[in-house]
Fold this sequence. Notes:
Layout: H1 2-7, H2 18-23, H3 60-70, E1 81-88, H4 101-108, E2 111-118, H5 120-132, E3 137-140, H6 147-154, E4 157-160, H7 170-177, E5 180-184, H8 187-192, E6 206-208, H9 213-227, H10 230-242, H11 247-272
Parallel strand pairs: 1-2, 1-4, 2-3, 4-5, 5-6
Helix pairs in contact: 3-6
Amino acid sequence: xxxxxxxxxxxxxxxxxxxxxxxxxxxxxxxxxxxxxxxxxxxxxxxxxxxxxxxxxxxxxxxxxxxxxxxxxxxxxxxxxxxxxxxxxxxxxxxxxxxxxxxxxxxxxxxxxxxxxxxxxxxxxxxxxxxxxxxxxxxxxxxxxxxxxxxxxxxxxxxxxxxxxxxxxxxxxxxxxxxxxxxxxxxxxxxxxxxxxxxxxxxxxxxxxxxxxxxxxxxxxxxxxxxxxxxxxxxxxxxxxxxxxxxxxxxxxxxxxxxxxxxxxxxxxxxxx
Length: 273
């Protein structure tokens, strides 16, 4: 993504290549990923309990009920459902949850739905949470190609607290389905999710910058507070679903880069003559 292209020129993200990348910065470009808007389409998705659009957002409540039922959680429309769809590796930032998730569950009362697999320390962490909070936390700790659609279509929020993120697709797919992303402001997450500002009424999600647990607490708390304001939440969902993260924009960026590359090649050939 454009932000990640800048980040890899720094010591924190460059993996010892930052000096070389800075020298070649004139040839370094970042292009945001896209998603297939025909495939990821809540109006047509056959995996949803109830299809919906920006104009029929109320239908989304049926998917939330189905999600809660599928994961064995109490059916509560008034309780926010926070979803996780991820590989469980260090890059994805779930270490931030270790010291804070239990106090958050107790204080904010949200439900947590987890889908993914990966390293043992994260798998064990989520298994322990399910055992301690069976009425609030449920997990499917293995790969599944269908459940992400139901989570996107039924969860109120999606958590993506990555340490770094070259681009990321989960937040894009979530936006398309009106599941509001809570993300760390890094790489492609910063390029695709705009932080919500209650004063201006703009924004498509909730972001935090510093990679620390307290910053994540603030972001999750903000999201849960705004969830209680139904008109404001609906407006955020509508902006999220209206955001264009299709391949059309990315393809145009790639075409521009190919034009630049062809021009550079042409000039180099002339110089050789």
